Amino acid sequence: MKTVRSDNGLEFKNSSFADFLAERGIEHQFSSPRTPQQNGVVERKNRTLVEMARTMLDEFGTPRRYWAEAISTACYVSNRVFLQSSLKVTSYELRFGRKPNISHLRVFGCKCFILKKGLLDKFESRTSDGIFLGYPAHMKGYRVLNLESNLVVETCDVTFDEASPARPEFSGTPQVSE
Q: What's one Pfam family the UniProt record gives for this protein (predicted)?
């Protein structure tokens, strides 16, 4: 990498970032104010992610407040599916040197069943209803909204019903549990 171009955002205009780039011999360029067209590649990528997220939220009527989960999932999927046109490989292949395994990909917003743990009564349900919201950043598994507790949990003990929309009555703001 020889050059980094960023907008005039304050997150990039600071001495620690400038020192970081200088140590590595990387030139830092700034685009003109209010001209997003100068950074066309990033603007196209952002537009693609937003369009994917909007489509994913609309498919099963997932509430708009899960937009961050949808963007994260769109980015996760696009890195494993879309090809770099000039190189004919995915972003994942460029980074890790091998083809990605996509057999674990699921339909965003679909109904799922989360396996309950612990001591359960003989006639108690063994699963909780949930909604699939994406993939955790640092572990194998899935991020799902548990509809009983209204918590977003990360687990691999999930069964999916990808044909059925969840369409639950969403109430309150979910909390993240890990």
A: SH3_retrovirus
**Pairing status of strand 158-165 against strand 151-155:** unpaired
The pair of structure tokens assigned to 54 is 């909007």
| Tokens at 11, concatenated | 């997150």
Contact 152, 133 (CB under 8 A): yes
Q: The tokens 């909604």 sit on which residue?
A: 131
Residue 171 has pLDDT above 50, yes or no: no
Decide: helix, strand or coil at residue 122: coil
Q: Measured between alpha carbons, how far apart are the two ends of the chain, in Å?
A: 36
Which sequence spans correspond to the domains of the chain?
1-34, 110-177
pLDDT at 174: 56
- Please tell me the pTM assigned to this model: 0.70
DSSP reduced 3-state for 32: coil
* Cross-strand partners of 28: 4
